[in-house]
Amino acid sequence: MMGQERGGRGGTGEHTGEEPRFMPGFGEYDLEGGEEAKEVHRRKVETERSDSVKESIRYWQKSDQISRSLNTTKKTLEEVVGLGQGFDIVFREMTFGGKKTGLLFINGFVKDAILQEILKRLTYLTPEDLSLGALRSFFDLYIPHIQVEKTEELSKAIDSVLVGMSVFFIEGEQSAILLDTRSYPVRSPEEPSLERVVRGARDGFTETLVTNVILVRRRLRDPGVKFEVMKVGRRSQTDVCIAYIDDIVDKVLVDAVKEKVRAVELDGIPLADKQLEEAIIKKRWNPYPMVRYSERPDVVASHLMEGRVVIFVDTSPSVMILPTSFFDLCQHAEENRQTPFMGTYLRWVRFFGIFASLFLLPLWLLVVIHPELKPEALNFIGPQKMARIPLIAQFLLVEFGVDLMRMAAVHTPTPLASAMGLIAAILIGDIAVKSGLFVNEVVLYMAVAAIGMFATPSYELGLANRAVRLTMIILVAIFGAPGFIGGITAFMIFLSLQRSFNTSYLWPFIPFNAKAMAAIIFRVPVLTSKQRPSMNKTRDRTRMPREKRDS
Questions:
Q1: In a 10 Å sphere around its CB, with 0-12 CB exposed, 13-18 middle and 19+ buried, how is residue 426 labelled?
Q2: Distance between terminal CA atoms of the chain?
Q3: Which contacts (CB < 8 Å, 24+ apart) does range 260-268 have?
Q4: Number of separate helices (H) and strands (E) present in the chain
Q5: Is 239 exposed, middle or buried (0-12, 13-18, 19+ CB in 10 A)?
Q6: In this predicted model, what pLDDT tens digit does every residue of 502-515 receive, in sequence order?
Q7: CB neighbourhood size of 519 (10 A)
């Protein structure tokens, strides 16, 4: 069967034009006295080394063309997809108008009502109704369905079944009819928990690719919006959709993304977008995200209009937006749902929280270790008396404790999560300070840094900033002021060297673009922002219609 160890014999070559037939002795053995044939069949199963459905079909029936014999097709399906070995793959044999047929589908993937309507219509046929030929009559006249096509390749028929379609085989015909009767399990769109807004849409992406595409299409009724689908994974055959606006996006970027996706060589991507990101970005041990994730259709639609490329992966409720930058990951949809003044205020508060999550703890540790660096106005900063545990150990324990609470909150049932947080944050923290194990200021500043991390819009960016904060604390504890300065310098150099699909990660700070930097610092009014970000290298940079542009 397909899926054996790779590297041995594959298919039997190209189609020779002969009628496909199931190889004798390799499946058609005598159940009563064919022990020798059974042994030959067992050896053939064990020696198969097919890498694809097409190779496996050629291995068993010499050709990928659909056989005129339903019996041959059925036996090939038994070897290639395990027909009869599981409950979910169904091959329903029926006779319509005197013609023997077979309907292949996966139980649970098809809409029963649609199939029943099709079969009900076919039961009324007589041999006279098929005078023009069975295939032509079924396809052109008697199958009341919209999405129908024909194929002569058995591999295409099987691949269609594996994605939820139904295949209609007809005795004596070397073509089959594909029926799109798919019905995937799907939940209703809900507001994403990581990207909530006070005012705005409450719908979010689901695990179904078609639903996600429709949510974006509803917001962008532009014929230039393109959704191109390809499959990734030799076994999983996961649908990956690349979306962009044709007359805005940089075609070089689109071609680069397509090439990277096509070049992915994996058995499958069951973990969807995250595995695909690692395969196409190849950032290895870099903690900072090179793409932006979003579960909001309105955010994705706005980035498409800016000239970005969006990657949807089936079974994932989040999508990848690229290219991205450090400052892009610091922005949230809530800022654009408020007035420009309040949006700017919220953005500044968010930037302060991100800055605090990075540098507040290392800076406090530095002025405690070196009090001479502290201005007289800040003499109140620092512990009045030292605790039993060294400061660096306190920082590390509190950092790991916050991480442990975060992980525990994820795995704790919702009704108990609040109680767990109260116990961990208040009871344990209060006792640790009162017992003299921790300095109260360490707990205070760690709480501020943790709030800043949770206020970071990008979850991945918040985790990366935490790793940098830990590194900075260790450098300050070992080297003091030189460690702090050297850590910040190394951090800035590291970020400035990163590129997201040939785009500077620190744009518009490096390279500096004053107008774009002002749009990062301030949430400018909609009518003021007349051009798209230059980092996207868009073909059409203006946001305004021509008459507005010329006026």
A1: exposed
A2: 68
A3: 261/230, 261/232, 261/311, 262/230, 264/232, 264/233, 265/234, 266/232, 266/233, 266/234, 267/233, 267/234, 267/235, 267/236, 268/233, 268/234, 268/235, 268/236, 268/237, 268/238
A4: 20, 10
A5: middle
A6: 899 999 999 899 99
A7: 17
278 in helix, strand or coil?
helix
**Chain centre to alpha carbon of residue 364:** 39
The Cβ of residue 8 has, within 10 Å, a number of other Cβ atoms equal to 11
User: pLDDT digits over 176-210, tens only?
Assistant: 999 998 887 778 888 888 888 888 888 999 999 99
Q: How far apart are CA 322 and CA 331, in angstroms?
A: 15
> What is the reported pLDDT for 196?
87
Structure token digits, residue 335: 């800022």
Q: What is the dihedral of CA 71, 76, 82, 84, to 10 degrees?
A: 10
Distance between CA atoms of residues 321 and 257, nearest Å? 11
Give the range among 334-343, 412-421, 429-438 with minimum mean pLDDT.
412-421
Burial 137-153 (b: 16+ CB within 10 A, else e): bbbeebbeeeebeebeb
The two structure tokens encoding residue 153: 């390749």
Sign of CA dihedral 154, 155, 161, 164: negative
What is the full DSSP assignment across 327-368?
Answer: TGGG--HHHHTS-HHHHHHHHHHHHHHHHHHHHHHHHHHHHH
Across the strands, what pairs with 313? 240
3-state helix, strand, coil in the chain (%, to 5): 45, 10, 40
- 301 touches 216 (CB < 8 A): yes
The structure tokens listed for 265 are: 């060589």
* Whether 504 contacts 390, CB under 8 Å: no
**Which CA distances in Å does 248 have to 196, 219, 230, 508?**
29, 17, 22, 20
Pairing of the two strands 148-151 and 89-96: unpaired
